[in-house]
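Tokens as discussed.
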């Protein structure tokens, strides 16, 4: 009788942790860069092997989106929507950068298979994902969380999305860019 009771107690405690804030530990997002603060700078390799430095993109808007993994359904939908809207982003002088912890070769294959023409960056050391508090800790594996940061031409974070619906996200960002353009 004691063993089933112990198991039930452990399960209840785990459920409580997850529902009472443990989700933040799993998903990240507890302390991302604040709106108005300088976006943490970085240099990461892209799918074509070329390094990309965030500060070198000053003068343009940057959509910096973190995603869990190449070739997964949600990540593919999100990437396809950014690709579909790429000309709209270009009209708004906006660069799209995707970041995940997969390596350059995985990103290269993902871009080739899915017809993606924007930069995917390899954060294999997970340092950039951590600096943006966008790390998904699964215990045995760490992936980038699905978070997005809109960075203005001066390098400041202007908007943060920690809860992303991949089907509508690209349109939300375009609307936000238009709102900033009208201010």
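Sequence:
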């Amino acid at each position: 009788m004691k063993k089933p009771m112990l198991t039930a107690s452990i399960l209840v405690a785990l459920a409580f942790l997850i529902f009472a804030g443990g989700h933040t530990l799993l998903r990240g997002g507890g302390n991302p860069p604040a709106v108005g603060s300088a976006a943490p700078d970085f240099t990461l390799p892209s799918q074509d092997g070329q390094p990309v430095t965030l500060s070198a993109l000053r003068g343009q808007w940057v959509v910096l989106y973190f995603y869990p993994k190449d070739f997964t359904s949600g990540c593919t939908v999100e990437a396809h929507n950014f690709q579909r809207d790429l000309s709209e982003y270009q009209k708004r002088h906006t660069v799209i950068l995707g970041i995940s912890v997969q390596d350059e070769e995985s990103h290269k294959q993902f871009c080739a298979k899915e017809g993606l023409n924007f930069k995917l960056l390899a954060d294999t050391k997970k340092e950039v994902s951590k600096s943006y508090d966008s790390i998904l800790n699964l215990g045995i594996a760490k992936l980038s969380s699905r978070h997005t940061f809109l960075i203005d031409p001066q390098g400041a974070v202007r908007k943060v999305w920690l809860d992303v619906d991949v089907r509508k996200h690209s349109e939300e960002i375009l609307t936000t860019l238009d709102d900033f353009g009208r201010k």
